[in-house]
Automatic annotation (TrEMBL):
Keyword Disulfide bond: yes
Protein name, as recorded: thioredoxin-dependent peroxiredoxin
Top enzyme class: oxidoreductase
InterPro entries hit by this protein: AhpC/TSA, Peroxiredoxin_AhpC-typ, Peroxiredoxin_BCP/PrxQ, Thioredoxin-like_sf, Thioredoxin_domain
One Pfam family hit: AhpC-TSA
Family named by the database record: Belongs to the peroxiredoxin family. BCP/PrxQ subfamily.
Oxidoreductase as UniProt keyword: yes
Function description: Thiol-specific peroxidase that catalyzes the reduction of hydrogen peroxide and organic hydroperoxides to water and alcohols, respectively. Plays a role in cell protection against oxidative stress by detoxifying peroxides and as sensor of hydrogen peroxide-mediated signaling events.
Reactions this protein catalyses: a hydroperoxide + [thioredoxin]-dithiol = an alcohol + [thioredoxin]-disulfide + H2O
Recorded superkingdom: Bacteria
Annotated organism of origin: Sulfitobacter porphyrae
The protein's Enzyme Commission number: 1.11.1.24
């Protein structure tokens, strides 16, 4: 799991709306990566709508924002259309990026253990280094906290 001040692991992933995003191509601007477990679940929907609603504020702060899960592009496209999301979503179907960022973890729900994505957000500085990390994110107030940190860079 990368730590604050370390270089953010680079990646190239497909993005909603077509094309690909390569993290290293975004150097010079802060980048927010919010990892979430699954499209169209209550917490993930609330978080994605929150980032979409504040996307212009992040852009005004000079920051790019991307949501990442292991859902397929087809699922992402349905999720975006259903909730009119404006935040770009990246598909990490193979799981390489969720592994590199340490968010693919063992979860324990009602005594049943399984692997899944831990809700986490990384704020990456314009220099490509990790500026802040939020682990085990609770959705209420989270988008605002990330926006405040992005503005402070």
């Amino acid at each position: 799991m990368p730590e604050i001040s370390e270089q953010a692991p680079d990646f190239t992933l497909p993005v909603t709306g077509g094309g690909e995003v390569t993290l290293s191509d975004l150097r010079g601007k802060p980048v927010v990566l919010f990892f979430y477990p699954r499209d169209d679940t209550p917490g993930c929907t609330t978080e994605s709508i929150g980032f979409s609603a504040n996307l212009s504020d992040f852009e005004a702060a000079g920051a790019k924002v991307f949501g990442i899960s292991r859902d397929t592009m087809a699922k992402h496209d349905k999720f975006v259309a259903k909730h009119a999301l404006t935040v770009p979503l990246l598909s990490d179907e193979q799981g390489d990026v969720t592994e590199a960022y340490g968010v693919w973890v063992e979860k324990n729900m009602y005594g049943k253990k399984s692997m899944g994505i831990e809700r986490a957000t990384y704020l990456i500085g314009a220099d490509g280094r990790i500026a802040q990390v939020w682990r085990k994110v609770k959705v209420p107030g989270h988008v605002e906290a990330v926006l405040e940190a992005a503005r402070a860079l």
